[in-house]
Design goal:
Elements lengths: L3 E6 L2 E9 L5 E3 L4 H5 L19 E4 L4 E4 L2 E2 H7 L2 H10 L5 H12 L8 H7 L6 H15 L10 H27 L12 H10 L10 H13 L7 H11 L4 H13 L6 H15 L3 H9 L20 H17 L4 H13 L3 H5 L6 H11 L7 H22 L27
Antiparallel strand pairs: 1-2, 2-3, 4-5, 5-6
Helix pairs in contact: 2-9, 3-18, 4-7, 6-7, 6-11, 7-8, 7-18, 9-14, 9-18, 10-11, 10-18, 11-18, 12-15, 12-17, 14-17
The protein binds s-citryldethia Coenzyme A.
Length: 429
């Protein structure tokens, strides 16, 4: 089979190399297209456009496959700790015992944030959306650690910045939560696991010793792993593009937090629960909601359904749906919203519109139900997604930096006014 692609433009034939990935995916390398033909390509939303060659995560949307550095998501979710998966995504291999101890120890000893940051939280209005607080606070970390702004990116600076960011983001997330519930900030405790420490800072109070519930710790560990990376999704591409200008890691990840906030992306987990609550409150038949989702004149979409890549099933949704049953069972919670979600899935997956378009539940459809059962408020759901996604953002940023990839700067087709002379104010109609 030819490893070149031929293009005929205005009667002239051009050849472009074909790239073949580790899993035999094919791409036409058009990096010389404009230079040789004067043409660019057009692909709104980059649905058919590869931005990089990456060795971190492999997705097969047709077969519902997700692997981090070759390990299946099913195995990692079942057998690994979130810290092992974070190390895997960032450094390329599962850590041995010594490496994991060093990684855990380094992160444990960077969990405190500068006391001045408390004043930032005090300045936010009560009820400020935690994603708005988180993106601001992550960006402000760069001002406390100016060595992170070093564009030469000395490897030791990068590693220190990576460990600081992984260590501090749960502290900042918990502070955002405590700001809105009006409870005192809890300082990190070094004798707890990464997930256990987050739980302690979220739900602990000074008056008593917080007991880490192993059921919740295990559920959060699994949820963080399931969200840890997803190749070139919207927020990861944002982190890469911002980082490609040699902006520091904190600022690049802060941009990723902002991109994730959108309801079409990570914000969908909040939108799903709000949708299910509306369905429950209104009590109208599920089919009427399905009909609305299909109606092009209606802005309503079935949140948590559909995916740019997965066109059969999202493997993460399957794992989370099973975990939702387990966690609610273990905690003795009977949440009618879970039943509505399952019935809605059943109705949708028997509807031609959804089947024909390959619209299945995605990672966000069931995750909110578990977060709710764990006592996490709805406006913190996307913060939970960000905590999970952080190692993926970092690994992708590090890969882009080490490969010295060029600054991201797409071209356009101009459709505005052609040249015209200036008209003075008095002569304008
Ligand atoms: C995440 O990219 C990633 O990897 C993201 C993510 C990650 O881990 O980083 O997996 C996390 O963001 C998951 C997605 C969460 N978003 C939602 O659940 C919001 C609802 N879903 C969508 O809006 C939509 O499905 C997207 C945004 C997820 C994907 O959109 P695409 O690929 O741009 O597809 P599209 O909008 O062009 O839709 C194709 C067709 C359209 O109909 P037609 O024009 O063909 O008639 O499907 C329809 C759409 O109208 N459609 C839906 C729908 N999603 C798509 N119709 C009703 N309800 C929906 N949810």
């Amino acid at each position: 089979m030819s490893d070149t692609a031929r293009l005929i433009l205005e009667g002239q034939e051009y050849e472009f190399p074909v790239l073949t990935g580790a899993e035999n995916e094919k791409a036409i390398d058009i990096s010389k297209l404009r230079g040789t033909t004067g043409y660019i390509t057009m692909d709104p939303g980059f649905k058919n456009t590869g931005s990089t060659q990456s060795g971190i995560t492999y997705l097969d949307g047709e077969n519902g496959i997700l692997r981090y550095r070759g390990y299946s998501i099913e195995e990692l979710a079942e057998k690994a700790s979130f810290m092992e998966v974070a190390y895997l995504l960032i450094y390329g291999d599962l850590p041995n015992a010594k490496e994991l101890d060093y990684f855990n120890d380094s992160i444990t000893h960077h969990t405190l944030v500068h006391e001045n940051m408390k004043r930032f939280f005090d300045a936010f209005p009560l009820g400020a959306h935690p994603m708005g607080m988180l993106s601001s606070m992550v960006a402000s970390l760069s001002t406390f650690y100016p060595e992170s702004q070093n564009p030469n990116r000395d490897i030791t600076d990068i590693d220190l910045t990576i460990h600081r960011l992984i260590a501090k983001i749960p502290t900042l997330a918990a502070q955002a939560y405590k700001h809105n519930v009006g409870l005192p900030t809890m300082y990190p405790k070094n004798n707890l696991s990464y997930v256990g420490n987050f739980m302690h800072m979220m739900w602990g109070v000074p008056a008593e010793e917080y007991e880490v519930d192993p059921i919740i710790e295990s559920a959060l560990n699994k949820l963080f792993i399931l969200h840890a990376d997803h190749e070139q999704n919207c927020s990861t591409s944002t982190v890469r593009v911002v980082g490609s200008s040699q902006a520091n890691l904190y600022s690049s990840v802060s941009a990723g937090v902002s991109a994730l906030w959108g309801p079409l992306h990570g914000g969908a987990n909040q939108a799903v629960i709000e949708m299910l609550e509306s369905i429950r409150a209104e009590g109208s038949p599920l089919q009427s909601w399905i009909d609305r989702a299909k109606d092009k004149t209606d802005s309503f979409r079935l949140m948590g359904f559909g995916h740019r890549v997965y066109k059969n099933f999202d493997p993460r949704a399957r794992i989370i749906k099973k975990a939702a049953d387990e966690v609610l069972g273990q905690l003795g919670i009977d949440d009618p919203v879970l039943d509505i979600a399952k019935q809605l899935e059943e109705v949708a997956l028997n509807d031609e519109y959804f089947v024909q378009r390959g619209l299945y539940p995605n990672v966000d459809f069931y995750s909110g139900i578990i977060y709710r059962a764990l006592g996490i408020p709805t406006d913190m759901f996307t913060v939970m997604f960000a905590l999970g996604r952080l190692p993926g953002w970092i690994g992708q940023w590090k890969e882009m930096t080490e490969n010295r990839e060029p600054i991201g700067r797409p071209r356009q087709v101009y459709t505005g006014a052609t040249h015209r002379g200036f008209v003075s104010l008095n002569d304008r109609k």
